[in-house]
């Protein structure tokens, strides 16, 4: 096995085995998912190398060289296996509590489910960690939004983005425009485009993810065309009655 193949396989195994409830493998720092989720808020604030493990991305981290990378295999594993998404949902609910939100989510096996965020009773204390002009937690929130979408928890990402917009609208001017721009990009851009890219080209993002986005767009267009043809033929039939 070549060194390049070995390097690409390592992060793949780390992400899946870390989130697989039947394996519960530790991360590079010998921490399991459950152990991290049981940390108190002060430790979640002070530690800086766990967020990349809980919410991995297809892009590398400039702050953690050991951060696992989402490959095509990991991408499809999370979208095909509800137990992986259920575990990721635990990370989402825990990090929401850290930021002062309470999450109510449905079964991740359902394609369409309700995900709702509300302000926690102690949200004002939690807001001291991040509700300001700029903070390292703003970078974390950008990562979380993108990671949730990449790994199949689009509803959770949308709910978090909605809550962030609500909080910022209630007290405008607190969070910087730059941070809000990155949150919007992470929540709304096409999935293959990272939020830190200013000029988007045909080569932007991982090739396998660009291809997946293209296939999804093509399938959606075909679905719309099929629906239009069906409605058109139905109208024609009605007109001949």
Description of the structure:
The chain has eleven helices and two strands, in the order ααααααββααααα. By secondary structure, it is mainly alpha-helical. The chain folds into two domains: 8-203, no CATH class; 206-241. The chain is globular and about 60 Å long. It has helices at 3-19, 33-37, 41-46, 51-54, 72-80, 82-99, 123-127, 136-150, 154-170, 177-188, 207-239; strands at residues 101-105, 115-119. Mean pLDDT is 90; it is low at 1-12. Helix content is 59%, strand content 4%. It has a two-stranded antiparallel ribbon.
Sequence-ordered SSE layout with sheet pairings:
Blueprint: H1 3-19, H2 33-37, H3 41-46, H4 51-54, H5 72-80, H6 82-99, E1 101-105, E2 115-119, H7 123-127, H8 136-150, H9 154-170, H10 177-188, H11 207-239
Antiparallel strand pairs: 1-2
Helix pairs in contact: 1-5, 5-6, 8-9, 8-10, 9-10
Strand percentage, roughly? under 5%
| Helix content range | 55-70%
Q: Main sheet: which strands, in order across?
A: 1-2
Largest sheet: 2 strands, antiparallel
Are there runs of 5+ residues with pLDDT below 50, and where?
1-12
Tell me the domain tally: 2
Straight-line distance between termini? 69 Å
- Annotation, overall tally of beta strands: 2
Shape: globular
Cα Rg: 20 Å
What is the element string, with H for helices and E for strands? HHHHHHEEHHHHH
- Structural class, judged by helices and strands? mainly alpha
How many DSSP H or I helices? 11
